[in-house]
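Re: beginner question about structure tokens

> Can someone show what the tokenized structure looks like for a real chain? I only ever see the sequence side.

Sure, here's an example I had lying around. Input first:
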Amino acid sequence: MPLSPRIQARGIQLLLGRMMTRVHKDLRFTDVPKRTEALLVETGAGAVPCTVYRPPTDAGTAGTPAPVYVNFHGGGFVVGRPEQDDHICRYIAATAGCVVINVDYAIAPQRPFPVAVTQAYDVTAWVAENGSAHGWDGSRLAVGGHSAGGNLTAAVCRMARDSGTFSPRLQILDSAPLDQLADPATKRSLIAKPLLGPQLMRVFTAAYTPDPADRGDPLVSPALADDLAGLPPALVITAENDRLRDEGDAYAKALEAAGVPVAHRVFRAVDHYFTHTGPVAEGKAAIDVMATAVRVALSD
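And the corresponding structure tokens:
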């Protein structure tokens, strides 16, 4: 008898959890100082631990609070390892001169959709509203993430647009799964053995959305939405050999067609997760593109 998706997902947590904290040694930016503190944010789906990264100086000008970037890590909605993005968070904090909030949202199968979306949105809304008490400027806010974190970024921006509670100046979608309805076997790669295999992707999807009816929800599959106008400006990063490349490329075009300002970068000859495992030159270039985009978007 085949194992249930829930049991398979728990196995993946055990097998991949520690592995996903490993970042290529030349992508760790050990020359960039790290100033962090712990933060716990109450949300409609429970308390969410966050790590706050402070820039080398807290403001571009004396007495002015720094802007803020909210980061959501990847892991297929199943692996909860926010520390995998330590190198990205510290680089963005230093290069963009902003505070970075790295969010440790709840994972499936223990807590499936919509828990992670609720937590991601509520944390971001809290960050936007409570900057004065914590030393950042919540009115100058950007949000982004890798893989599953990019999916949550798109959901947060959609909810922010619809509610009118806050307005991110930028969303970063790095190698994000944006169509959870399509069979992963139909998502092609240019290489024989890409990092993401169809069965692994099916396990992730089944764990995160055990009810198949949820998979067409725009908060789960942003690429299936037909009302993209009014979303924040976007930086969309895709990897040439990634199975998720086509849906990322298509989403960038759809955003642009809806009148959303879009910068789209396709990094050649790399696969999913290259911003963590390399190749180093391409990984560093992509992270620098992110940091530069944040700095420009959040500057006055």
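Each token stands for a local structural state, so reading them left to right follows the chain. The longest helix spans residues 280-298.
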